[in-house]
Amino acid sequence: MILLRHRPRSKAEARERLYQRGYSEEEISAVLKRAVEERLIDDQLFARLWVEEKIAHDPLSRRALAIQLHEKGIPTEISDAILSELYPLTLEEQLVSRLINKRLLRYQRLSIEQAERRLINFLLQRGFSPAMIEERVKQSVSEFYTGKS
C-alpha cells in the first residue's frame, strides 16, 4: 500500500488520503478492512510508535500529544491507554529539563533575560504548562550562567 510507504498511518488518515485520491466509499471501506485484517493499519500500534518517536526526538507535553493523536483520528480510549503506559506524569518534568539543557547551549550568547524568555516561549509552544516551566527555566538559566563565569 503506497500510503504506508513513508510512515505508518492511522485508519482515519488512510481513509482521508484514499478519499482525496477519488476512491469511492465502498472501495475505501474494502481496502481499510483488508489492511486492518492484515495488520497493515493498526491504530494502537500507530499511536504507540507516534508517542515513542515524539518522546525520543521531538518532545511535546502529554496534552499536546493527546491532541495530535486525536487529530490523526486515534480514538480517545486508545490514546489514553498508550499515553498512560508510555508517558507517565513524571516524564513530562524530565522532558522539560532535557529540552532546557539542550536549548541553553544555543542561547549561551544571549542575556539571561533573553534566554529565559526564549526558553519559556519554546516550551509553551510545545504545550508544557507555565506552572511547570517558569521556575524550572529560571533556575536552570541562573545555574547555567553562574557556572559559565
**End-to-end Cα distance:** 57 Å
The ordered H/E elements are HHHHHHHH
What is the rounded Rg?
Answer: 20 Å
Counting DSSP E segments of at least 2 residues, the number of strands comes to 0
Low-confidence stretches: none
> Average pLDDT value?
92
Largest sheet: number of strands, sense, barrel closure: none
Number of helices: 8
The percentage helix is over 70%
Strand content: under 5%
Shape: elongated
Number of domains: 3
- Class per helix and strand makeup: mainly alpha
What do these coordinates show?
The protein has 149 residues and is an all-alpha fold. The chain has three domains: 1-41; 42-87, Arc Repressor Mutant, subunit A (Orthogonal Bundle); 91-148. It is built from eight helices and no strands. The longest helix is centred in the C-terminal third of the chain and has 19 residues, at 130-148. It starts with 10 loop residues before the first helix and ends with a helix. The model has no long low-confidence stretch (mean pLDDT 92).
Task: Write a brief caption for the model.
By secondary structure, the protein is mostly helical. It is 74% helix and 0% strand.
Main features:
mainly alpha; 8 helices
Could you outline the blueprint of secondary structure elements for this entry?
Blueprint lengths: L10 H10 L4 H13 L5 H15 L4 H10 L4 H11 L2 H18 L5 H14 L4 H19 L1
Helix pairs in contact: 1-2, 3-5, 4-5, 6-8, 7-8
